[in-house]
Structure prediction request, 255 residues.
Amino acid sequence: MTSWIRRSRSLLQRLSYHPGNDNSEHWKSRATAPGESAVWFKNEALNRCIRSAQFRILEPYLWKLPQGAHVLDLGCGTGVVTRHMLQVRSDLRIVAIDFPQMIDRARAESVQYQGVEWICQSATEFKRFEQFDLVVSVGSISMIRHEPDFWQAIENVSVSVVRGGIVLLIDPFHTSNFLARVKVSPTNVRRSLQARGFNVDQHRGITFWPLREMISNTNTNSNWTERLYCLGEAVIALPGLDLLSDYKVIIGEKL
Prediction:
């Protein structure tokens, strides 16, 4: 089974083209799209499934933070993750960064939430030396498709975390032309963080990518979407099939 999967992915690589060029203008233009489709997919039921899985991973790390902890939401989009973190822990001080188009919308949809500093800046530019107890990227840092810019963003994240702080990346790291955002493997991301002084772990990934490809831009019924999503998660939980997960979960603790 694993051999067949690898052969299939190799074929998809040869049939697809991923240039690795900058795509920031694409994301700026998405800011006015309705709902979560501004940052995710047309199928809002699938978006809800993915968000729920992401929040289940994120929340335990929020509860471990000290009172008034400083958190960076890297590539906050329309502010969904920022708002959720404050719903879980209203004492958190959050810095949320993204392009101006996304920040304008995030700020407008988050007026009732206190403790957020909204900053119009890219991850390749933003860093604050040892300021954050937690840096979170939820489907964000991997969207920097130009590889030198991606590694610059990793460096900025690394220096921005306090000693004992956590970097939590829930991102689709792939090397295939078919699936790639930035073309880097989760192994290389782990090694990069380790080289920068982090103790790094990788948890089981989420979201069965063949299903995501099939229904992400359809209007599949919500109940069917949820059932199919749960089935996909059961598949990638099987031994050796985590390579079929779309979002990889990488956790680094700064030593």
Observations:
- The radius of gyration is 18 Å.
- Residues 6 and 67 are 46 Å apart (CA to CA).
- Residues 10-17 have pLDDT under 50 and may be disordered.
